[in-house]
Amino acid sequence: MTAKNKTTKKLQGSVSFVGVGPGDPALVTLRAKELLGRADVVAGELATFEPVVAAYVSEEAERLELTEDAVTPAEAGRVLAKHAKDGKHVVRLYVGDPFLDGHASEHVAAFVRQHVPFEVTPGLPVATAVPTYSGTPLTTAKVREARVIDVSAGEPEWETLAEGSATLVVTGVTDGLKDITGLLVKAGRDASTPASVTTAGTTTEQRTIAGTLETLASEVKSARLAGPYVLVVGPAVAMRDKLSWFETKPLFGWRVLVPRTKEQAGVLSKLLRQYGAVPEEVPTISVEPPRNPQQLDRAITGLVTGRYQWVAFTSVNAVRAVREKFEEYGLDARAFAGLKIAAVGEKTAEVIQAWGIKPDLVPTGEHSARGLLEEWPPYDRVLDPINRVFLPRADIATETLVAGLVELGWEVDDVTAYRTVRAAPPPAPIREAIKTGKFDAVAFTSSSTVRNLVGIAGKPHATTVIAAIGAQTATTAEEHGLRVDVQPPAPSIEALAEALAEFGEARRSAQIEAGDPVTKPSERKAGARRRAK
């Protein structure tokens, strides 16, 4: 056989039918994350899976919309198989568990005849995860049986469900709640049997209404709670008052504005989510190179030639700016040999360590220029061979650190490593939400975030809770006519999130003690107003 006649066998891909749980991306299994991460094609009713796709699927992966109303299982199977035969790894997504919640058995059965490798990856079922997030156990010491009924595929035999005391979990309920509860009572379930419905389960939009089979439908109607619902019926529902843990988080459902760039906001947003909040990141500054790069160029040259004893990094952006210059010159972390490195706080220190450098000085107290100065050693003519400090920083940084180092006997090369400029205004819906009080809180992490947010979007509404990371930020907020409600004892991201959570918990407790419904700040009456101090 000649080389011309040789053929290269095309590598065959595979198809994975993957359950991704009930809604919260954090509940996706490790196996599902692995498959999503290496997917060439991700398929399904993708609007349903937007948070999961955004969290785990590569931007390069092809998005394939498969709507069950428009595509039969056989047609979908052929489409998936075609991509797999082209050597691609295809992931077909399902809510909850593919076989329990997603009716995937029909899809898999239709796909088998395509003779393409496939697997089915289980996910956390809606029928167990949502009741758990609502604080409702399915079994107890007295109730040892639970039954799952999916009404999306048709009416079950209600008479068979009325026997015994088993907990019933009814999924696929989009409407007709009154009919379902009525049929259960007609079939023999006691009208006083505890029952509850939950919508948007496991997400921060989750809401649960509890009552009895007799009262539940009217209570849901009064609360204007829209489906689809997960309905739970049985004595175990009565335990929800004591076991509810998710909807009682201190900031549950609070819409919190985080005025930082996406890179900088990650840690704060993660902490806020742990307290039940819904953070929305709005960049207020943009980081750009200095107008005069020669100053930084000379400093980097001096660093290599032994001009400095110390390098002081006062922000993550300063580290990145210097590192970019290093890469431009073909340098690496070895150029810091013999130098002492200072970091203003733990986050800056982490970025330095990721570069392969261990900082010599990180404040144990306040993470600020003041905190750095409190622990900075004075210049010693005998012990210190060089008396100069390289300080790369932003163009708008304060002079506190420079003045303090000079007092300690050091000479400082104060170099603009990057510029911070005001970001473009956020989209109109965000600006409108800020001005009209649709945000429950704003978490300010610096004075510049206060000034820039007000500049590009206007002042937050008077009912919005204002949280400031430290005294200077609080002063700036008050200068702009804002009343500061929350200020942590220590100026750190962790302390800021914790202080806001404590404020939310105290507010919730006060409402409960007064016999008032638990509401968010954005749900205050229209006439409510607060004045700045």
Keywords:
alpha/beta; disordered C terminus; 533 residues; 5-stranded mixed sheet; 35% helix; Methyltransferase, Cobalt-precorrin-4 Transmethylase, Domain 2; Cobalt-precorrin-4 Transmethylase, domain 1
Task: Provide a descriptive summary of the structure in words.
The protein has about 525 residues and is α/β, with parallel strands linked by helices. The chain has 4 domains: about 15-125, Tetrapyrrole methylase, N-terminal domain (Cobalt-precorrin-4 Transmethylase, domain 1, 3-Layer(aba) Sandwich); about 125-245, Tetrapyrrole methylase, C-terminal domain (Methyltransferase, Cobalt-precorrin-4 Transmethylase, Domain 2), CATH 3.30.950; about 255-285 and about 425-525, Rossmann fold (3-Layer(aba) Sandwich), CATH 3.40.50; about 290-420, Rossmann fold (3-Layer(aba) Sandwich). It is about 35% helix and about 20% strand. The chain has 19 helices and 19 strands. The strands form 4 sheets. Strands 3-2-4-1-5 form a 5-stranded parallel sheet, with helices on both faces. Strands 6-7-10-8-9 form a 5-stranded mixed sheet, sandwiched between helices. Strands 13-17-16-14-15 form a 5-stranded mixed sheet. Helix 3 (about 75-85) crosses helix 4 and helix 17 packs parallel to helix 18 (about 470-480). The model is unreliable at about 1-10 and about 525-533 (pLDDT under 50).
